[in-house]
Each structure stands twice: as structure tokens, then as C-alpha cells.
Amino acid sequence: MPQLDFATFPPQLVWLVITFVILYVLMAKLALPKVGGIIAARREKIDGDLEKAGALKAEAEAVLTAYERALAEARQSAQATLKATTDKLAAAAAERQKVVSDRLAADTAAAEKRIADARTAALSNLKGVASDVARAAVGRLVGETIDDARIGAAIDRAAAERG
After folding, report:
1. What DSSP line would sit under the chain, residue for residue?
2. Phi-psi bin for 79: left (phi > 0), alpha (psi -120 to 50), beta?
3. Contact 130/155 with Cβ under 8 angstroms?
4. pTM of the prediction?
5. Rounded Cα gap, residues 151 and 130, in angstroms
6. Which listed site, 42, 45, 49, 125, has its alpha carbon 20 to 30 Å from 107?
């Protein structure tokens, strides 16, 4: 193997140094600046993207805060509208109930008056009917006619004993 021959070591070392220097110069002058520029451009792009993301996050938080505030205001408005509507409906219902209650009270009073009048009329007619029935019954049973005063007195006594 020629690489291991000690006689060829010095020329190999010279070519090694020459090759190393040429590669070093090429890397330092051409390749590394391009790579450094690409890295710097990527770093700038990443930093820009991070700044944009931070700005968008702040904007999103502001929008979320505004949305939550608007939602809370809408809920308060809805609650106020619901309360006002409920109060208005309750007042209307109370008014209708009062009107119906007054009408029912008037109808009840009128019905009670009609019942009392009918009762009075029935009782007054009852005395007359009782008088006629008693006169007819005594006339058939006894064969005599009884005067109205005696029949009235008997009916009054019978009513007093019952009532």
C-alpha cells in the first residue's frame, strides 16, 4: 500500500495541507457566508412570524374580550326586556283578573238578588197555594168552607213550628 510507505509521507502531507487550505478558503469565502445568510434569513422570518403570531394573539384576545362584553350586555338587555315584559304581562293579568273578579262579584250579587226575589216570590205564592190547597182539602174532607183568616192563621202556625 502506497499510503503506508514512509518515503511518500512528505509529498502526501504537502498535498494534504494544500487541499485543506483550498477547501478552507472555499468554505470560508463561498459556502459559509451563503449558509450564514440562509440561517440569518430563517431567523428573521421566524422572528417576524413570532411577532405576527403575538400580534394576532393580542388581537384575538381583544376580539374575545369584546365578544364576551357584547354577550354580557346582550344577556343583561335580554334579562331587562324579559323582566319588563313579565312585569307588563303580570300587570295586565292582574288588571284582567280584577275586571273578571269585579264582574263575577256583580254577577254573584245579581244572582243572589234574583234568588232572594225568587224565594220571596215563591214564599208569597206558597202561602197562597197552601191556602188554596187547605181550603180544597177541608172542603173535600169536611164538606165545609173555611174563611181565609182561619186558613192564614193555621198556615202561619205551621210555618212557625217548622222555621
Report:
1. -GGG-GGGHHHHHHHHHHHHHHHHHHIIIIIHHHHHHHHHHHHHHHHHHHHHHHHHHHHHHHHHHHHHHHHHHHHHHHHHHHHHHHHHHHHHHHHHHHHHHHHHHHHHHHHHHHHHHHHHHHHHHHHHHHHHHHHHHHHHHT-----HHHHHHHHHHHHHHH-
2. alpha
3. yes
4. 0.44
5. 9
6. 125
Q: Is the confidence at residue 71, as pLDDT, over 80?
A: yes
Contact criterion met (CB below 8 Å) for 112 and 104 = no
- Quote the CA–CA distance of 152 and 143 in Å, as a whole number: 19
- Interval 141-146 mean pLDDT: 78
Q: How confident is the model over 150-162, as a mean pLDDT?
A: 80
Q: What is the mean pLDDT of residues 45-66?
A: 96
